[in-house]
Design brief:
heterodimer, A: alpha/beta, Rossmann fold, four-stranded parallel sheet, 4 strands, 16% strand, B: 667 residues, alpha/beta, 28% helix
């Protein structure tokens, strides 16, 4: 299976810490499907379930970055598929604004917004792998207090 | 049912000490084979507030649940954390389990250490164990802050809407109507019947399709509890389980259905001829026409796009039914449940010219072949080839066109093998002198009578050749189709010539699928068809309460399977319709009036218009019945006056704070 590439650790390399806010209806279910399909991805990510991506407040993201996250992912339903009509559009505005604020600290690349549907288990694993690689290139989050 | 007053059930005083029990599931080896569950339990046991930890082989089993209940009693637990599979499937089980012990069901915290941990880190056992510890710690810290909530009951309107009147939708409608419920059956075509009405014969028994479908169509029309809305489409849906408000558009037929008798005199005089869609474009119909002889309702329809306004039909119509100025009309419905049976379409090989389709006259699709076989079809049941209307002798069938192909669709459409086998048989029976070759990848005949039908074809002399044509050409003189193909069983290249070649085109989503996906907020699966709530245990439910799916709309199916799903939907819907009430989640937004400054930022954020200003108090007010609990407004509130119950700021932040703490503890 294409998703089953081994992610065995390479040497004593540092592994990033990623927090993923997943909406209950699409992305959380997509992460479940990645599991059911056994699409392997690095154990760098921990998922926090919210009902809608629009529930994620900028404060949560800042708190995560301060408390030890090297990257934060917010994942919701594709535009047009939101369980709550257009909550994801609000999330998009909010996350983009947060990104702008983070850009001033040079942290904007550590925040990512993705639309992942309940059927996109493979995509979920790919997003995590890709984001992990990107954060690895960026290195440790310089502002986190817990290292 | 426990009839204790709901408001008092299982509440715990804020000040009460939090006594958490943590139950780690091994899920056989699904979790236990990767995550060291005992190490997780040992670690979690050291966290403040955790009174007991337990590891079970299967926490969801009787003994696992009994363990939870026994420990709630023994340790006087007031919070329960289950670390197991996905809350999407098992949360209700454990909520019921703790509720039986008098705990509020929202005092359960569910941590996913299977789908989100052991299954995706199968080869990194130590790291998976560390991650599981982190996940469970997040859950424990959140659980301490959980507050009691009450699920609320909403009334259910005892009427149903069925979208799509193919065989699956008709079955749903009939079953619900026979149970005494009012059903609105909306069909976008001028007649009910769906795809099955176009088939000639149906496998594996080869009975005449319309002969078994026709009586069912009439039964639907006669049933006094079913209101057929043909030539109509659902344009808007709002509301929620038990109380959906639906807007249906009735497209203008340009005639009064109450006056039309279906005599088709109008068609006789109409001078316009257009390709007949019911016959897959073979033959013609008039601009005003009765869809097909067995149509229900048996009424004409005027195709305004092709009408030349000569008014001949108006003169011919003895009942004066024709009305050229008709406009679309609308009906507003209020229903408790919605069943989506919107069907499918077949893969179109034209754009890619698969196997020469669209380039060569004598390459046709299986649906087109089906109409040629049909006695009521364009040729009266004589199979002829399009280039010269001669009866073909050598007929090739290509399977898996638009299925099992990385270039088009990777999934198996499930029915095409049997369609081809049946079509080859029917032709052989009609004209034994014909010579059929079926070119296949695999032959799939899984259900009752299918393998027998396959054997029957072989006994009749139909040839089966395993391979896929690599080159298809037309002989410019004879218009015969020349095929170069590798016989993968014999291991040799072969050159074949056919008078006619038939492509078994697969099942693909139709426009109706996109439409109801958007209207009802459903999910699509990777194949583009709609997704069920659970592929095994909730095959006709969706993630939207009160919305069910039947037939091919949720994956390729044959007729018996689609009919079963139609009945299954009716059964599932009846649970709501008969009980006249539905339980909805207690998760809503709540306003703290002491903090609200009445700035009204939240009001336009709500997609459901659930927040109104309390003008007198100058504060926002959430109407719980309308609130769906998304939390959009909560994140927007500048003062923090709005909170989302069960997803409160402190509850989420407790998780955030504890995500990465383990490294610190370990260091």
């Amino acid at each position: 299976m294409s998703g089953e590439a081994s992610t065995a650790p390479k040497g004593n390399g540092w592994e990033p810490n990623i927090l993923a806010f997943c909406c209950n209806w699409c992305s959380y279910a997509g992460a479940d499907l990645a599991g059911v399909s056994r699409f392997q991805y690095p154990p760098t990510v921990k998922i926090l379930r919210v009902m809608c991506s629009s529930r994620v407040e900028p404060a949560f993201i800042l708190k995560a970055l301060k408390d030890g996250a090297d990257g934060v992912l917010v994942a919701g339903c594709h535009i047009g598929d939101c369980h709550y009509i257009d909550g994801n559009k609000n999330a998009e505005v909010r996350i983009n604004n947060t990104k702008k604020a983070l850009a001033k600290l040079g942290l904007d690349k550590r925040l990512r917004l993705e639309w992942i549907s309940a059927s996109e288990g493979l995509r979920f694993s790919e997003v995590i792998r890709d984001f992990t690689e990107e954060i690895k290139k960026l290195g440790q989050n310089p502002v986190k207090e817990v290292k | 049912m426990n009839d204790t007053k709901a408001t008092e059930k299982g509440t715990v005083k804020e000040s009460e000490e939090k006594r958490v029990g943590v139950f780690v599931c091994e899920c056989g080896v699904n979790i236990g084979g990767v995550v060291n569950t005992w190490a997780v339990a040992d670690y979690i046991g050291t966290l403040p507030g955790v009174k007991v930890t337990s590891v079970n082989k299967f926490t969801c089993s009787d003994s696992g649940q009994a363990d939870i209940q026994q420990k709630i009693k023994e340790y006087n637990l007031n919070r329960v954390v289950v670390a197991a599979c996905s809350p999407k499937t098992h949360e209700p089980t454990f909520r019921a389990c703790i509720e039986q012990m008098g705990l509020n069901q929202y005092f359960l915290e569910f941590v996913n250490i299977r789908d989100h941990c052991s299954w995706i880190h199968m080869w990194e056992k130590e790291k998976a164990t560390e991650k599981a510890k982190d996940l469970v710690r997040m859950g424990v810290e959140r659980s301490k802050l959980l507050e009691p909530l009450q699920a609320s009951e909403v009334p259910v309107t005892d009427k149903a809407l069925v979208i799509g009147a193919g065989v699956a939708g008709m079955q749903s409608a009939l079953d619900l109507a026979d149970m005494g419920f009012q059903v609105y059956l909306v069909e976008k075509e001028p007649s009910i019947g769906g795809r099955m009405a176009r088939f000639d014969k149906v496998f594996p028994t080869n009975d005449c399709s319309i002969c078994i479908l026709g009586p069912k169509m009439v039964e639907v029309a006669r049933n006094k509890n079913i209101k057929i809305m043909s030539y109509s489409e659902v344009k808007a849906v709002d509301g929620y389980v038990g109380n959906f408000n639906v807007k249906v558009e009735h497209k203008p037929r340009y005639l009064d259905v109450a006056k039309c008798t279906g005599c088709a005199k109008c068609s006789e005089v109409c001078p316009v001829e257009v390709p007949y869609d019911f016959n897959e474009g073979f033959g013609t119909r008039k601009a005003i026409y009765v869809p097909f002889p067995q149509a229900v309702p048996l009424r004409a329809v005027l195709d305004k796009e092709n009408c030349i306004s000569c008014k001949a039909c108006a003169k011919a119509c003895q009942s004066g039914a024709i009305n050229y100025d008709m406009q679309p009309s609308y009906t507003d419905l209020n229903v408790g449940v919605i069943i989506g049976a919107v069907g499918f379409k077949t893969y179109d090989p034209e754009p890619r010219h698969d196997f020469g389709y669209g380039l060569y006259d004598n390459v046709i699709t299986a649906m087109e072949f089906e109409r040629l076989l049909n006695a009521a079809g364009p040729t009266g049941g004589h199979v002829v080839r399009p280039s010269d209307c001669k009866e073909p002798i050598r007929v090739g069938f290509v399977n898996c066109v638009g299925s099992r192909d990385k270039a088009t669709n990777i999934y198996c459409s499930g029915v095409c093998c049997m369609v081809t086998i049946k079509n080859a048989q029917l032709l052989k029976e009609k004209r034994p002198e014909t010579d059929q070759t079926i070119m296949y990848i695999d032959i799939r005949t899984p259900f009752r009578g299918y393998e027998e039908s396959y054997n029957r074809s072989r006994n009749l002399g139909v040839k089966f050749l395993r391979g896929r044509p690599v080159e298809v050409k037309e002989d410019p003189v004879t218009k015969n189709i020349k095929v170069r193909i590798e016989d993968t069983l014999a291991g040799e290249m072969r050159n074949l010539e056919f008078d006619l070649m038939v492509l078994a085109t697969g099942i693909v989503p139709n426009e109706g699928i996109n439409q109801i996906q958007q209207l009802l907020k459903l999910s699509k699966a990777a194949d583009g068809l709609l997704m069920e709530a659970h592929p095994k245990l909730k095959p006709v439910d969706t993630t939207i309460d009160g919305v069910f799916l039947a037939g091919v709309a949720s994956g390729p199916k044959d007729i018996p399977y689609a009919v079963s799903q139609g009945s299954a939907c009716a059964g599932r819907a009846t649970i709501l319709l008969k009980n006249k009430k539905a339980i909805t989640e207690g998760i809503t937004a709540i306003v703290n009036p002491d903090v609200c400054v009445g700035c009204q930022v939240c009001i336009p954020m709500c997609p459901f218009q659930a927040i109104k200003m309390d003008e007198q108090a100058g504060k926002a007010n959430v109407m719980k019945a309308l609130c769906k609990g998304c939390g959009t407004c909560v994140a927007a509130c500048p003062t923090g006056a709005l909170e989302q119950s069960h997803f409160k700021n402190n509850q989420l932040l407790a998780q955030v704070r504890n995500v990465f703490k383990f490294q610190e503890v370990a260091a």
